[in-house]
Protein 1
Amino acid sequence: MFDEALRLHPNLVEALRGRAVLHALQGQLEQALETFLRLYQLAPGEPNGQHNIATTLNRLERYAEAVVWFERSLAVVPEFGRAWTGLAAAREELGERSNASEAIQRALAINPSVPLPRLIQAMLSLPRVAESEEQSEATPAAFCQAMAALTEWADADPNHLSALGERVGDRQPFLLAYRPGQHRDLLSGYGDLIARAGNAYWSARGFLPMAISPIRARPRLGILCYFIRRHSVWDIIVKGLVRHLLRTRFELIIYHTGVETDEETRWAERHAERFVTGQLGLAEWLRLIREDAPDVLFFPEIGMDPLSCHLGALRLAPLQVASWGHPITTGLPEIDMFISGDLLEPPDAQSHYRERLVQLPGTGVCTEWLDIKPAPLPVSYLRQRTPGRVRLLLCQHPFKHDPADRSLLAEVLRACSPCELYVLKHRRLSRASDLAVELLRQTLAEADLDLEVLFVERPWVDLDQFLSLLANVDLYLDLPAFSGYTTAWQALHCGLPIVTLEGPTLRQRLAAGLLRQIGRPESIARNSEDDVAIAAQLAAESRDPALQAARRAELAAAAVKADHQVETVRAFEQTLVDALAELKKG
């Protein structure tokens, strides 16, 4: 309709507005932005014109540009509460916490009954990058205080609670997992609040309680995931389930809630009895799930995507299960089980979870190596090799850097000297990356390490180039506060040795579990001294070409033991069957 109108009248403002909004609703954000910009050029006085551009830029994760457009909007209408909220969200993403807090205070002053600014205000208690050990250690208490304030506001008026229910998941305590501790009680308090809010909102609209059908003889499994595409959640947790799930035992529905698609998305569509995708509203997702009536809903990554959090807070299936796409308890009362692996968890692991913890064999996943050929790195990405100087790699997201780890890293670098440290800076999280790198540089300078020789900052590269990088460095350094699984898995397949210090929670044990899975636990450190000693030994070994080649060949050969663990899928199936049988008993 809009296209036909614009064919006849290319500058028709009403049609441009309608097409831009439609693009935005369908997740076609680049097209939406292009149309909103064109609309603004034609009609600079268009109501909400600058705000629509800014909001779309936020959704495109182009936060610095979004700030400019929000500020233009506010220069025209200073009391525009939604623009202050959007500005706060953009500044929060850029790591500008004080500026974000000021913007939220302006939004709250304009309309204190709107829930989103209050959610953002609560989550601002969680720093993207902790600047000191004191700040890192104080974060859980700050979050507890912020949640108490949010709960008090929600409970002060039934309308507040219901309004909050519409925004459940829009802001999540994702960053809490990057601070020390297991956080079960904190996340359970958050989970209780958003579950009450979500139920209040959707019950008033007739969506809840949802009728739960009798459990089928061949249960219907719904996988609800934002990342049905090339992504760590898909590559590590989901794809193996989709490939190996016995269709004689289960019917499979995939709910793809994300925007991006690729060949993996199309592969998934071919391997499911039913595949649902599209930028649907929450009410539409609830309607579709109610019609499908799955016996099991599986949420691989609650905590990373607003929609999975919102839907996971509600009772939509007899059995609701989460996994470690975000490796910490969800805290949600309607999630019944958390699926992990017995090589990933400590002895007291159940005490870390609100859900019933199920530990599948090994690391609990069934992976297959990537069909991707390494591509050449950009010219001058790697420094020219200096004989005897070891290349170390630090390639984690900036919020994984905890202040307590920086001094340990300095000790590792001193023990590995002469060496150079390649630090990758995240494309999208540029401000957080800048801060994390600057804090690390300060620590290394204070340790009298020569940064000119030692420190090599490089931008993030695409996966095919990253595989080349893994083949051309000598040692992968895991971070103790938050371990990596996907990059460690990729490193091992490239034969790259890994040093990891195993901690007390799941998120600190991912690389260690992977090393145990492949039968190579010798580079798992028990304490800081052990971590330094292992790194120094592997660095010394890498200076001997024959020893280095032998170890890399052994690791690459062993890495296949991490893959094709179909028994984990069989165990996953049996876990669901047994749990459904218990539910049938009543």
Protein 2
Amino acid sequence: MDRDTADFGRAFEANPQAMLAVDPAQDRIIDANPAACRLLGYDRAALCALKMTELHPGQRPALIVFTEAVAAKGRYWTRSLSPRHAGGREVKVEYVGAPLESAADQPPGQPPRLLLIAQDLEELQRHTVDDEADHYVRGGLAEWQRVERFFRDIERENQLILRAAGEGIYGVNAEGKTTFVNPAAERMLGWSADELVGKDIHSMVHHSHADGSHYHGHDCPIYGAFRDGHVHTVDNEVFWRRDGTPFWVEYTSTPIRDRGALVGAVVVFRDVSLKREADDKLRAALDEVENLRQKLELENAYLQEEIRAESNHRGIIGKSAAIQNILRQVELVAPTDATVLVTGESGTGKELIARAIHEASKRSDRPLIRVNCAAIPRELFESEFFGHVRGAFTGALRDRIGRFELADGGTLFLDEVGEIPLELQGKLLRVLQEGQFERVGEERTRHVDVRVIAATNRDLKSEVRLGRFREDLYFRLNVVPIESVSLRERREDIPLLAAHFLRGASRKLKTGGLRLTEGDARRLSHYDWPGNVRELENVIERAAILARDGRLRIELPEAESLLRPAPAMTDANGGLLTDEERRERDRANIRAALAACGGKLFGADGAAALLGVKPTTLASRIKALGISRAAFAEKAGSTAPRQP
């Protein structure tokens, strides 16, 4: 070992600054002096056994940048690296690095080994403070007076700031006692600073919630600031004035520390009563706008739904006496606001009657809102009719407008009104009589102007007798009764309706050239139509779908249409027929069909097609009943072969 090396070794060992010799290429600590061991809390062997990246966990990128900068510049420093003490804490240091070898001694292609000097930043800060204190002591009385004047000026400036501030500001110590109050706080609270300083300010200005309930000091965020050391910001509480009146405030409570210890908090607050009032008005206006928006959206949805409804014709088709009677009733009742009860079998067009009444009324510029009472779950009836507010029940995530409110100024059509639960009928009766209701979960009473049209296929009189429908509600609904007659009671309208539905089906299916033959019309007119107009529409649409070569394929349920008695025939025994009477009825029906078809049995215009049965089935029945087709064929001039 030469003399220079020995001198460096002694300097390395005796240096009071922490020093590390490191090899960046090998990521290892070559050596550490005793000062480094004391700073980092390791013995020498343990420290040298560590890698540099282990001594600086999670800091590899910063470590690489620093060592490369030292190698490139020859000398570099950083405060971005914090070695891990043996006790687990990070040590804040300033590293100064330089190469250990000269460029000539450095192995070719290898980064140089480095000498790192670590300065404890906390110790450096203490030295700075001690140096400043020593400077003041050496300065004597003149220096102390200068410092006193300096702090006095600062305090005067702080007082000017506190007095000029528009926000209320006050301080509390760790016991919750007031330490200072600025003039703005005095004005807002009505207390003078002398009356508040030294007192428990929470019990004087923050003792109650806005509703008057007690506000315990343990729950106070202002006191919480000097207990948990966090800044607390609140915008929905009140302070209480000296005269006992509250005002809404926003405030921030910031903890005050002295040498790391929490000694109090400073509170900055402002009166936001006017702002809150303006916000409430704005919120109410926005809620009203939102309600109107929802109402318009729902109205639009209903209108779109009605446009897409299966019954896409708004008029009533028919020339029968029954239809003319219904139209006269519509003309009489439409100009009034009287409640109408439309009765009749399913599929007879009760909704069409309701729509005709609405469109002929003075409310036609407002929507007709339809409610299918049979499709609403029992537990949602009240919400569906009257609406609800947010949080009224599980799943009520926002306010909802009910059907009555949506129909305000227009007409509400209650379809299948007999399905309304008995317990809700009283509330429905109230809104019909008084025009008032409350949303579910809300105490506010709302008023509406709604014309009600109800429809049912039930016998409500029987329902009243059985206790399933309120008698007072029945009389309230049954102001003007209109009966929607079944299709079999107005058979002369069937061809007109069938032709109308065929035109609609052709447009829908984009098929042209389809027409209704006379035979098709006769077949449809002889069927009893238990499903009424709705069934007729479905049969026509199905026939249009199955049509081939422009000819409809009308399929009627055979059990219903097979050998139906002629309309003019009646049963002598009140509907109970003997076997001979039944056979005679079938003979008369088949003879009528053969007469209408000129004795023709097969084909689209034959008797089998008219009666809706297979030709072979009808031929077997003709033979069994002893009917001869010859007379019908001769009468029509037919050349069809004689039936054996």
Protein 3
Amino acid sequence: MKKFLSIITVCICTVMVQAQKPNNEAIRKLQMAEFAIANLYVDKVDEDKLVEEAIIKMLAQLDPHSTYNNAEEVKKMNEPLQGNFEGIGVQFQMIEDTLLVIQPVSNGPSEKVGILAGDRIVAVNDTAIAGVKMSTEDIMSRLRGPKDSEVKLTIVRRGVDDSLYFTVKRDKIPILSLDAAYMIQPKTGYIRINRFGATTAEEFTTALKGLQKKGMKDLILDLQGNGGGYLNAAIDLANEFLQQKELIVYTEGRAARRSDFFAKGTGNFKNGRLIVLVDEYSASASEILTGAIQDWDRGVVVGRRTFGKGLVQRPIDLPDGSMIRLTIARYYTPSGRCIQKPYDNTANLDGRVKGDDNQEKYNLELVERFNHGEMIHADSIHFADSLKVQTKRLGRTVYGGGGIMPDYFVPIDTTQYTDYHRNLVAKGVVIKSTTGYIEKHRKELKDKYKKFETFNDKFEINDNFLADIRAMADKEKIEFNESQYNQSLPLIKAQLKALIARDLWDMNEYYQVMNSMNNSVQQALKLLQSDAYEQTLKAKP
């Protein structure tokens, strides 16, 4: 009951802050219902669970992004955005019930005590974790812990007969939001961001300056698959490209007055050619940054229409560590486009709620895009004249209606993705076979390929490796389909090579391999090599 009253108090205070009068009658009604159930119901009830369910049901009637998270969910949700967690510092993969170290984090606690890539962790604090079918989550909970606390690890190392024992002092482990930053061509840099977190701006600035020292004049910024994150991170990144006092984004809601966010003009890349890559999974903060760049004619957007997540959530912390994320406003691009795609979770006049049906429709909207041909054919995309707006500097026509429509459309690649390939990935055949190959040949590969450039030019996936893939697929009961196998073979080879590169070096090298197969990246390079970039950013006659 105390938790319920606290929640009601928080909600009342939040509403009052927005200068709205609380509906005392509705609040009393809710209070009385909970009180009656807790004190008069025939059987004992779990009050906490009842309250949580009530909150969840209320939020479900509002919009697709107003949510409730319990305390444990809040902690897990915040870790990637805060930029660090406390643990031993290894990238790992579960292979046949054993934790295999892919790479120790550079200068992290595990690397400092001598743990190497390829080591297998078989016990944590004398508790076996290998061969006991322990969940990945349970293993991670044993490896993580407060900073400066110690954990004892038992290691099995290839070529060493006896087990090895290490005591690792846990530390803060960075969660990087930049996947890759490298020179994709002599004067062109490539940076890929996977989320917008607390350290994104700092990571980006460091990477940008490093590429500029290598002679970078043009930049490809890859936001494909980036689902968003912190608003401030998107604003900080937009500031790197825009001039002083140029509007980045504004928010506005029923009870939330308009708030404008402007560039400071202190950025490090305000003049070079810029291409932003997006797809249907680029959302929220990604769309804020992309919309600002497009509206100010600062760069060219390449890919497919973004997700369309433009609702502002205010986190409301509850006493037990749980949280309500309540939508209070919408995001708008500088030209006034609402980023949020349409939704309808309102109740009918007769009181019947249709929120659940609309939530399902909202969740399936990307599937509908594919079914309607929008992701494959540019001529399948139609916008009403009412959705046309003009960019701020050149007066180019861009479109609202939800999400950011790119300047250059790149269809989704369906040529190499088959059911056979999807099963190979889903059942872990690709990653497991790569890990096994690396474990057997790590020293040989390290000796033969001192530099990634040599590896990238000369290493090829041979027939023996592919035979092992086929054998493992058979073991996983994946029915062989020769035509699908041949169709997906170039993609399978690229993924295998990229994963080997990642294990021998890092994510930079992984993306250097995979980007040779990425149609949006290749389209961006073509635009920079021709006059198409300049023609796109040409002032309206």
